[in-house]
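Supplementary Methods. Inverse-folding protocol.

Structures were first reduced to a discrete structure-token string of length 230. This string, shown here, constituted the complete conditioning input.
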């Protein structure tokens, strides 16, 4: 109870909520992309279960975060995984080798959400951990509070994707930017590139963002061409 009368506790809580608001956007984009081909009711459950699973993994990360950041190339590999996920999510759900693919299942969508969130959450968890000031209960509460922010945000983005297809391309671009930042800020990559890493800090994420946005647009154009052909 003493914590609730501590001004520092409330200051740290406000910092965590602010960080959650800033960082929820990337996760909301992933969730919206992952569930967009599911039926309406399954979209809702995909958002809930995917986000809850991701939050459980974030809490587990709290206990191993220092160790994770010491592993060489972990952020670089995470960036590559995120690029692969982005390509998978911006691809239309139809057609492969002359056959129509089934839409993503609820389980597949939940799995994609969790993998993407794990990939992107290393820096996020570290930021929240720093804002908590060593208070583990506050830290866990701060991570839990991101659940409604992400679910609500992904619902809005998903609605927008349903109305305007180009939002899907931009979603891929957002993931590309995050992937680029992860790759160029990896300690081992920075050690290998030296001062060159600083000059690539913005160009690499921007280039990856543009490439994945253009790829999403190309996929959509190809699908429209196939639709006209049939």
């Amino acid at each position: 109870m003493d914590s609730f009368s501590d001004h520092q506790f409330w200051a740290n809580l406000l910092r965590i909520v602010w960080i959650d608001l800033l960082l929820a956007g990337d996760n909301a984009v992933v969730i919206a992309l992952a569930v967009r081909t599911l039926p309406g009711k399954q979209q809702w459950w995909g958002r809930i279960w995917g986000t809850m699973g991701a939050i459980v993994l974030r809490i587990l990360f709290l206990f191993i975060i220092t160790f994770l950041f010491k592993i060489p190339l972990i952020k670089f590999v995470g960036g590559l995984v995120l690029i692969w996920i982005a390509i998978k999510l911006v691809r239309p759900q139809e057609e492969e080798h002359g056959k129509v693919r089934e839409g993503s299942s609820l389980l597949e969508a939940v799995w994609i959400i969790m993998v993407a969130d794990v990939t992107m959450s290393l820096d996020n968890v570290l930021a929240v951990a720093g804002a908590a000031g060593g208070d583990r209960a506050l830290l866990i509460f701060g991570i839990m509070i991101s659940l409604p922010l992400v679910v609500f945000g992904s619902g809005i983005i998903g609605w927008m994707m349903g109305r305007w297809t180009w939002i899907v391309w931009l979603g891929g671009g957002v993931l590309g930017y995050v992937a680029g930042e992860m790759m160029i800020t990896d300690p081992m990559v920075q050690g290998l590139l030296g001062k060159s890493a600083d000059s690539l800090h913005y160009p690499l994420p921007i280039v990856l963002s543009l490439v994945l946005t253009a790829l999403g647009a190309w996929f959509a154009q190809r699908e429209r061409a196939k639709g006209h052909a049939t």
